[in-house]
Amino acid sequence: MAKTSSVMKNKRRERLSKLHAPKRAALKAVVMDRELPVEERFEATLKLAQLPRNGAKIRVRLRCELTGRPRGNYRKFKLSRNQLRDLANNGQIPGLVKASW
């Protein structure tokens, strides 16, 4: 089990990234638009820098929903490899079977 502080920090980052996503997208569109004057783009860059760092989507770490493990996760199931194997062997994930040939 991961430290609860790490899990909570990641959840806070998820919440902040959802909150600031529209602002970030609008400012990034202004910054990337080559048709606009340089001063306007620079102001947008400064405003983007004023937003909290943890509001960026890239700072959110994919963690297992059950244990909080940060490594070896499957995006489709939001589970770590260990938990996915345990649940699959117990038949708790529909349609997932062990490979045999």
TrEMBL record:
Do you know which InterPro entries this protein is assigned to? Ribosomal_uS14, Ribosomal_uS14_bac/plastid, Ribosomal_uS14_CS
Sorted UniProt keywords: Ribonucleoprotein, Ribosomal protein, RNA-binding, rRNA-binding
Gene Ontology terms, cellular component aspect?
Answer: ribosome
| Residue segments, region Disordered | 1-20
Feature: compositional bias, Basic residues: 9-20
Look up the domain of life of the source.
Bacteria
Function (record text): Binds 16S rRNA, required for the assembly of 30S particles and may also be responsible for determining the conformation of the 16S rRNA at the A site.
Please give the NCBIfam families that the UniProt record associates with this protein.
PRK08881.1
Protein family according to the UniProt entry: Belongs to the universal ribosomal protein uS14 family.
Its quaternary organisation is: Part of the 30S ribosomal subunit. Contacts proteins S3 and S10.
Name of the protein in its database record? Small ribosomal subunit protein uS14
Task: Tell me which species this is from.
Answer: Falsiroseomonas oleicola
